Amino acid sequence: MSTDENGRIRSWTLTPSTPRYSPPAGAVDAHCHVFGPMARFPFSPKAKYLPQDAGPDALFALREKLGFARSVIVQASCHGTDNAATLNGIAVSGGTCRGVAVVDPAISDADLDMLHAGGIRGVRFNFLKRLVDDAPMDKFLDIAKRIERLGWHVVVYFEADSLDEMRPFLAAIPVPIVIDHMGRPDVTQGREGADMSAFRTLLDGRTDIWTKVTCPDRLDPAGAPYADFVKAVRPLVADYQDRVLWGTDWPHPNMETRIPDDGGLVEVIPQIAPTAALQHKLLVANPMRLYWPEED
Ligand SMILES: O=C(O)c1cc(C(=O)O)oc(=O)c1
Predict the structure, then answer these.
(1) Could you tell me the fold of the domain covering 2-290?
(2) Closest residue CA from atom 4 of ligand 1
(3) Is ipTM > 0.90 here?
(4) Candidate from 9, 33, 81, 220 with most ligand 1 atoms within 8 A of CB, to mutate
(5) Residue ranges of the alpha helices (H) in 4-68?
(6) What is the pLDDT of residue 296?
């Protein structure tokens, strides 16, 4: 745990290892965040955690070290619905970042257009009670309908025990859906455990539901080298290879007691995607289709 004199938490390591595995050219980290810097981009008064600054410079330095070319910055809950920090990260990236926003349901069409011009390509709906005060499904559905004209998708974050109540909501969404961290299955149940099976049923119901095969550090209680995560997730990558994404999740919000080594997270990639063809889909072809479709 690393908390500074102002009570601000650091949830990422300052000394990540250099991974032995080298991602393919053009690899995309499709799930990471920026925090602040707070002096320019204050956190939301409703934030459930107060992190130290983790701005674009630190993100780009890590990306370089890990061998990634592009990033998708996902608006972190600590910034609420003010996407300025995310837009700043995209703006200073020279075209190498795109983003996913969190929006107030009352947002105007003009403001959605402004987000698009700033590199946003999706909206995130967060259902974790420890992260947000409310998650109004009817209003989220309205947003999902309004972003269709922009060619965006929605990113949904929920936990495995709420999957059943999510099903009708997800079924009503008219745009592609990306599920954060596979809806947090209990990976110790194994590849055919109840959580993974329920999640596969969801993926089987629609061909435009994608998922991020991310966060072994959050999902595998045994920690590195994340053997249970690998066992449960490798078959998922093989079976849904055209709709899986990978990301570091840096700066790992809330992971202050189990800070992962980012290099160690990259080492997991060739274990869940064991061939060059799978790695290319996971790290290049799939995220490019979703976030840089004009280059596809
Ligand atoms: O599980 C988490 O604590 C978490 C939090 C956030 C966020 O605060 O936005 O994002 C994530 O992807 C994961």
Answers:
(1) TIM Barrel (3.20.20)
(2) 253
(3) yes
(4) 33
(5) 56-66
(6) 77
